[in-house]
Amino acid sequence: VAPTSFTRLCEAREVLAINGQLPGPTLYVQRGDNLFVNVHNHAPYPITIH
């Protein structure tokens, strides 16, 4: 997670993105799978992802 520049309708803003993507990447799992996600917060403040 890190701040990145995002342009929409010719206006640039700084937003938080995951792997440089907004929205973040889709995670595909099956029922019963174990999923471990390591998140490295490079934002200037604490965040929560859900």
UniProtKB/TrEMBL annotation:
Q: Which segments constitute the Plastocyanin-like domain?
A: 3-50
Role, per record? Lignin degradation and detoxification of lignin-derived products.
MF terms (GO), sorted A to Z:
copper ion binding; oxidoreductase activity
- What is the scientific name of the source organism? Nymphaea colorata (pocket water lily)
SUPFAM superfamilies listed in its UniProt record: Cupredoxins
The record's section on Pfam families has: Cu-oxidase_3
Q: Which PANTHER family match?
A: LACCASE-14 (PTHR11709:SF262), MULTI-COPPER OXIDASE (PTHR11709)
Name of the protein in its database record: Plastocyanin-like domain-containing protein
The record's section on InterPro entries has: Cu-oxidase-like_N, Cu-oxidase_fam, Cupredoxin
Domain of life from the UniProt record: Eukaryota
The record's comment on protein family reads: Belongs to the multicopper oxidase family.
